[in-house]
Amino acid sequence: MFGKKRQEKIARDQEAREAQARFERNESVGKEISARIADLKNVQRDNLPDAAFMLFMQAKQQSELIRRSIENGANHDFTFGGITDSDFATYLAEGVAGALRDHITRSQTFFEAMSEQLPDVRFTIEQQDAISMIAAMLREQRLEGILQGLRLAGLLNGAPDRRRTSLETDEM
Predict the structure, then answer these.
(1) Interior angle at CA 109, CA 107 and CA 110, nearest 5
(2) What is the pLDDT of residues 51-70, one digit of tens each?
(3) Of 3, 59, 147, 172, whose Cβ has the fewest other Cβ atoms within 10 Å?
(4) Does this model's pTM top 0.70?
């Protein structure tokens, strides 16, 4: 009995170390993306749509990597149902809340019941993974808002015009 508990503790400690390493890796990538978001104000107006779009794609890729990492480690599926009457932010929040409610409970032994010890409850998604996932989703949504602002300002649709003008100059 004690050997089994010790093995479980060693396994939990190993999982915690791995989660901390993933968190630190995700945090460094997230800081880089956040710094590049802040640097968008220094980008020339002509290059702004391309820079914002490339940054959005990088943020989306990081979100997907974190989701896959959690899916593989916790066996949790992030394919949410269709969007109902709520907005996209509520839809994402419902998915995250559902993922964070999942947990594993070890059945209580007779000795634990008699001594009024509670069974071990462990959440399937580590806290650091959840923080990384939510932060990545927020960065992705922030960049999507920037792209929407560029679209509304008419700057995002300006990229095909540059190609057209370069083709016109080549034909002359």
Answers:
(1) 140
(2) 999 999 999 999 888 888 87
(3) 172
(4) no
